[in-house]
Amino acid sequence: MGLLRLVLAAVLLGSAAAKLAAGGRGRRALSSYGLHGSAAAAAWAGTIALEGVLGIAVAVGVPGAAEAAAVLLGLFTLLLVVAIARGRAGQPCGCFGSRSRIGWGAAVRSACLAAAFAVLPFLPDTSLSAEAWLGVGLGVALLGLAALAIALLALAREVGELRLAVAPQVALSLDHEGPELGGRVGLIERFERRAPLAVAVFTSAGCSLCAALEPSLRLLARDPEIELQMFDEHADPEAWESLAVPGSPYAVVLAPDGEVLAKGTFNSLYQLESLLGPAAVRA
Question: What is the pLDDT of residue 167?
Fold first, then answer.
């Protein structure tokens, strides 16, 4: 009974880990049962948590855990049978990750697992030798490490999907702030005009963000296609006034003839680079 209990517990934990690794695809698989959006996300997270808790409870022999697992697997079997009856065979079922499909094979597997959990409390409690328990413990530890690795990979993928889903910010460019786009400014005389683009970056001595951006600005200044100069609010007040700079950090991208190609307030190197792309097109 002890070894069977650990095997069944491993099945529950493996199922929870597979659902977690499936991520968004696992949540979308629940649409086969009519769940969408927040309802699917809640059911996905709740199923993972329930299977994980029951797997641990069955492994340590908590009274009633096997019976609860049997009820859960029985419910899964019922859902699969209903889905098959509605003509959804072959669609994702989300049972063991995103590759699992609704079908009689999945229903039979779920029913067999439910039966195994149901009879588990009635089996004789046979004790294992110390060597056997050591082997079982090693297997459980390895299984836990594998589940942890899967969870970390799933988390990394979820973070990656979230970063792709969130549109990156660009520099804030307002028509009534700074110089007029397309106009020509005399500030270009302060540049050597040795590169296709001249970038005037306006900073302030008391601006902590400006100080944090200095390494990024130095990196950008190494680009042979860009000539970058910084204009401090106190050291170059004329430059600030002539271009009506609203605050710092602020950037103005100029063509070699002084034409204003792009402008805007930026908070990161990416936002500053977002000004260079359109400017290069206009140059």
Answer: 47
